[in-house]
Amino acid sequence: MSLTMTTGEETNSPAARPEPGSVPVRAGAPTARDAAAAPRTAVPALAIWRLSVYFGANQVLKKVSLEIEARAVTAIIGPSGCGKSTFLRSINRMHELVPEARMEGEIRLFGQDIYSRQVEPVVVRRRVGMVFQKSNPFPTMSIADNVTVGLRLNGVRTRSVLAERVEQSLRMAALWDEVKDRLNAPAISLSGGQQQRLCIARALAVQPEVLLMDEPASALDPLATAKIEDLILELKKDFTIVIVTHNMQQAARISDFTAFLYLGELVEFDVTRKIFTSPARKQTEDYVTGRFG
C-alpha cells in the first residue's frame, strides 16, 4: 500500500492548494484573533492534505485537510464510525499492515512527506508514537523492559543509556515515584491506570516528535483519567499530541484545537474554545451539545 497524491486540475492548480503555513480546512479555521487562545508555530507539526483512506471499496476518510500545531494538543471528535481512529493511524502508517487499505493525499511531518518512498515506516513510527485505547504492556516483561523494548529493537544496548531512559521516560509519564522500587516486577502487576502510563512511557522512550492517543482514558476510572489528563497537559510542553476522544468534557479540558469529523469528512476545525462555545457549523453545535452522536 502506498499513499499517492490525487491528480487532476483541482489539486495541481496553485490557486487550489493552500500556501505554506495556512490551515486548509473546510470551515472554521483558526484566525489571528484567536492567537492568544492556543500556542501557534510557524511550521505545523503535521500538514495533512486531501487525505482519503479506503478499505477495499469502503471509503472511510474523504479528502480531509488540516494542519496540526507543534507542542499543542489537538482533539479529534465525532461519533463512532466517523473515521477518527483511521485518521490517527494514518499519521504513523499503521494501515500499511492491512492488505486492502489504500490511501490518497499527503501527510507531512515537519515538512517531510512521511509516505515518500525514501522514508521507511519504522522511521515514521519512531518519530510518531502511538498509545492505544486499551493499555497493552508486554505481560512477560518487567516494568523496565517494557519501557526499553523500543530502544532495544533500535539497537540500543548500553546499560547506562537504557537505565537513564527508563527513569527519564517514567518521570515524564508521572510514574517513576510509584514504581522506582520495583522496576523488575511484571508490568501486569500495575493497576489499569498505571499500565496506561507505562505504555505512554514506552512510547516516549524512543523520543518521538508526535504522540498519538486513541481514547487513552476511556477504560479508566475518574481518578486514573484525571492523572492521564494532567500528564497530557504536561507533555505538550515538549511534544505534539493528537488525541481521539468521545468525551466532550475531556476534549474541552485538555485540547488547544479540535477537529470534528462526521461520516469521514472534516466538518469543522478551530481552536477548542470556539468549537465548544461558538462553532461555525450547526452540525458541530448539535454534536458538542449532545443532540446526536
What sort of overall outline do the alpha carbons produce when their principal axes are compared? globular
Mean pLDDT: 87
CATH architecture: 3-Layer(aba) Sandwich
Which CATH top level class fits? Alpha Beta
Helix content: 25-40%
Intertermini distance: 32 Å
Give me the Rg, rounded: 19 Å
Could you list some keywords that capture this structure?
11 helices; 293 residues; Rossmann fold; disordered N terminus; 5-stranded mixed sheet
Give your account of this protein's structure:
With 293 residues, the protein is an alpha/beta fold. Helix content is 32%, strand content 23%. The chain is built from 11 helices and 11 strands. The strands form 2 sheets. It has a 6-stranded mixed sheet, with helices on both faces. Strands 1, 2, 3, 5 and 6 form a 5-stranded mixed sheet that branches. Helix 4 (143-153) packs parallel to helix 7 and helix 5 crosses helix 7 (192-205). It is globular. The protein starts with a strand and ends in a 5-residue tail after the last helix. Mean pLDDT is 87; it is low at 1-38.
Give a short summary of the structure:
This protein is an alpha/beta fold. It has eleven helices and eleven strands.
List the helices and strands and how they pair.
Blueprint: E1 3-4, H1 9-12, E2 46-55, E3 58-68, E4 73-77, H2 84-90, E5 101-109, E6 112-113, H3 121-127, E7 128-131, H4 143-153, H5 159-172, H6 176-179, H7 192-205, E8 210-214, H8 222-235, E9 240-244, H9 248-254, E10 257-262, E11 265-271, H10 272-277, H11 282-288
Parallel strand pairs: 1-5, 4-9, 4-10, 7-8, 8-9
Antiparallel strand pairs: 2-3, 2-5, 5-6, 10-11
Helix pairs in contact: 4-5, 4-7, 5-7, 7-8
